Amino acid sequence: MFHPVSTFIGLRYLRGRSGDRFSRFVSYMSTAGITIGVMSLVTVLSVMNGFEAQLKGRILGVLPQAIVSQFEEKTAKTESAPEFITTLSTAGHPEPIVQSEAVIQSSSQLNAGLLIGIKPSEHDPIETHLIAGHLSSLVAGEYQLIIGHTLARSMDVSIGDKVRLMVTSASQFTPLGRIPSQRLFTIAGIYNTGSDVDAQLMITHLSDAGKLMRMKAETMTGWRLFFDDPFVVGKLSEQPLPDGWQWQDWRDQRGELFQAVRMEKNMMGLMLGLIIGVAAFNIISALIMVVMEKQSEVAILKTQGMTDKQVLAIFMVQGASSGVIGALIGGGLGILLANNLNPLLESAGVALFSVGGELPILINPIQIIIVVVLAIALSLAATLFPSYRASSVKPAEALRYE
Fold first, then answer.
1. What is the number of structural domains in the chain?
2. I want to staple 171 with a disulfide (CB 3.0 to 4.6 A). Which of 180, 194, 235, 380 is the partner?
């Protein structure tokens, strides 16, 4: 089979001679370093992607992702949303919503949280998280309430129990002083998302929430928008809205959490990327030793007509081959390790969660391709200086004492 002469010689140098054990050892360690670095980076990024996706599904699947309202959150209630709002909601029709901070009180406890009033729908994200009750039990005028299991446990309430909701923003002045708007609600359902939302979010019917907040019948907070990817709110929030309308989204309440997760993922990627960088420096040291050892052979090749570019290609092939092999093997091992991480931890007796559960894993093919390509590019860049040194060898000086 035909091989370009530079590739052929470069691959021969990669294998090395049987007596040159030290150079071969350094070359193998460079390949192993890149393999370990890429494998670790792929595995860690897959776990961090899993955590981010889990948070996105559990928290942002329940909380209102975005609300478009008129100023002072007093929006006129109409049969359908304005056309510009319908265009923004890409994953479903906009729905009316009433939202306010509220205080919930039971016979044994007092807590604060976020109260939202909705029109019950089969497509509402909270329906998939219900562990008791049904969303259809939210009927106007019956003052039914759905809360998270964490809040239910702390309040010591269950289905059928009554709690008192108080909204301080709708308080009124009386001869006895300022009294918040309050009403008794019946627990009609309990949901579980596995996040801190379970201790804060309370859901009731749109009409009942409006009455509690002393809103007029034709008034609501705004229109609730739905998206396939909640992170698109960053771009959508920059779009101009008609006069008198304003935008708010989940970042006001949970933005810091997701920024922390993203920063942690970036920092982990940077730290593990340094492993690949160290391995690339090993390639430089290995190639420099090979160039010093092969000076006479390079001189002979030049006297036989090999150009500087061909000599440069020989050592680039040798050094880059370590990076290519290490990156491809590391990427494959990283995918394999990520897919089997939970069974391996279980077999090793490592319990990361006190009550069951396992690490969320989400493998992003594009991310893996980027990691592998960057590792190959870094190893290729590491070969440039030693290869240039080899191509600048002068045959007369290299063979003077031969």
1. 2
2. 180
